[in-house]
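Hi Prof. W.,

I finally got the Asparaginase prediction working! I wasn't sure whether to trim anything, so I left the full sequence exactly as given:
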Amino acid sequence: MIIVGSTNADVGIQQGMDILKNGGSAMDAVEATIRLVEDNPDDHTVGYNSYPNILGDLQLDASIMDGATLE
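And this is what came out:
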């Protein structure tokens, strides 16, 4: 099993890997990993602590797709 993420994903990689090792789905692992990244108060690239857009608004856009079902 492999989980790949950028440096800021370090805070969630282990939890995602644990989900996979315990038979969880890849979707559950990705969601758990990203949730920890977005909730990390030291990360200013994503989530509630990220920098505002050019209009000064905090913009939170994300998407995820299951390749098997295309949902």
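The mean pLDDT is 90. Does that look reasonable to you?

Thanks,
D.
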